[in-house]
Amino acid sequence: MPAFQNPVLPGCHPDPSVCRVGDTYYLVTSSFGYFPGIPVHRSTDLVHWELVGHVLTRPEQAPLAGLDVNDGVWAATMRHHAGRFYVVATVARGRRGASTFVVTATDPAGPWSDPVPLEADGIDPSLFVDDDGRCWFTATRDAPEPAVTGPAELWLRELDLATLRLTGPEHVLWHGALRGAWVEGPHLYLRDGRYWLIAAEGGTERNHAVTAASAPAVTGPYATDPRSPLLTHRHLGPGHPVQNVGHADLVDTPDGATWALTLGVRPVDGAHTLGREAFLVPVEWTERGPVFAPGTGTVPATGSTGLPGPTAPDDRPGGAEVLTLDAPLAAQGWSSLRGPVDHLVRPADDGRGLALTPTAATLWGTGTPALVARRQQHLRFRLRCRLAFATTSSHEEAGVTVLLHQQRLATLAVSAGPDGEPVARLRMRTGDVVADLAGVPVLERDAIVELVVRGDEQSYRFAVVLPGGDERVLGEVPRTAFATETAGGFLGVHLGVHAQTTGTPTGARAVVSHVSYEALEDRAA
Ligand code: 6LW
């Protein structure tokens, strides 16, 4: 049994950044418009990652209201120095630019400090603490005369760890090896007296790649590593199961081995829906610099880190994960959009579930709807939700949603028909176009209805379980409708439970008594 199977963190977990303290590894990933922001995972073997908390748990830390869900919190870097954890990250605000901040904590599970804004141009900030304890901040920004697309200039300043201010002169480090597009995700490392700058190039799509430069001093001059790209799948053709590999961060084990965490995607028939996932890649330091995936140069499907950790083979299909309704949802990996929903999603009065209050904040808007959602982490899955919703308005609904971003989502929801009779409706939204795919009458008002979404290589299939347990399929949406290749954006599919209204609220609340997510076996397995 292989000790790991890639990706080690399936589902939408892009821009991984990793650090080690003693024998424990911590990993942060981008959270975009989801709240709480920046999940923190912990591991002792780089394989089994446990969600231990989030960096941004208070909405004031990073206001996300009004943002496209693909904007928001991008590409955090986490480092540890002298008993303190540091995270730098950017809040992207579309055309309104981006702002960068640093937060600190003594426990990576939190609480994290209020953010300290940094006067830093660009995105993808990173920190590097040198042997002498000085801390260096890097990021990427547009080059003065952009010869290429996207940010293309990696720059550096010192970060004073006592005041958390950028200080001293600014140094332009490098403009990339490939000079193609998007020189991003810089991270610095010191090895045998030489400073190594690892970057992502080519954009986060099929041309993504890891490139490098090195210098005798942290401030430069940096010389392009002529072996660049050091890791990419861009040349492997569309048949390779893992694509878009890049944006790597390195970490050393206590006994001196090095591993990279990098993002990648797993397209099926050229289209991926699970987002950019986190993959583990062995790295060997040689006289010529880091060699990624020695011997093959490609992200391994399986392998072993040889590090002590849980003996459970992996996290593949193994029963339904039932949402525990009386435990914090965030700790179970469920998120809301752009802010907390404690006022909209709360324990029902009789304690038998969650009560969702429909509000005018819709799934396709840029506010905070009554929604809790989790990443789709397996191509084949089943989501089940049992709910009762006694609305008399056809403008109100409560149900389940498949959400790529606010312009691409499907809902199967209980609402009222024209005469106020309870119905379940399946709708697909593509931008401003809404397709009413199906509707069926459901029981009598206030009865508990089970809604089911099943996904596989072909489609998302939506069903209602009728009395007696018979499942009635209402319709299906091709899987490719939710693929980044067709719908764009930075996210993977999230599966949620929601309530919303486009009219005057009737005061009805939906009571959700059961939610479960279940990974199903791959057809090939
Ligand atoms: C990330 C940047 C990127 O900050 O996507 O395309 C951004 N490149 O590296 C969001 O993941």
TrEMBL record:
Pfam families: GH43_C2, Glyco_hydro_43
GO biological process, one term: carbohydrate metabolic process
InterPro entries listed in its UniProt record: ConA-like_dom_sf, GH43_C2, Glyco_hydro_43, Glyco_hydro_beta-prop_sf, Glycosyl_Hydrlase_43
This protein's UniProt keywords: Glycosidase, Hydrolase
Domain Beta-xylosidase C-terminal Concanavalin A-like: start-end pairs: 332-518
Region annotation Disordered: where it falls in the sequence: 297-316
Site description Important for catalytic activity, responsible for pKa modulation of the active site Glu and correct orientation of both the proton donor and substrate, residues in chain: 124
Statement: the UniProt record of this protein carries the keyword Hydrolase: yes
GO molecular-function term, one example from the UniProt record: hydrolase activity, hydrolyzing O-glycosyl compounds
CDD domains in the record: GH43_XynB-like
Domain of life of the source: Bacteria
Listed SUPFAM superfamilies: Arabinanase/levansucrase/invertase (SSF75005), Concanavalin A-like lectins/glucanases (SSF49899)
Family, similarity comment: Belongs to the glycosyl hydrolase 43 family.
Record protein name field: Glycoside hydrolase family 43 protein
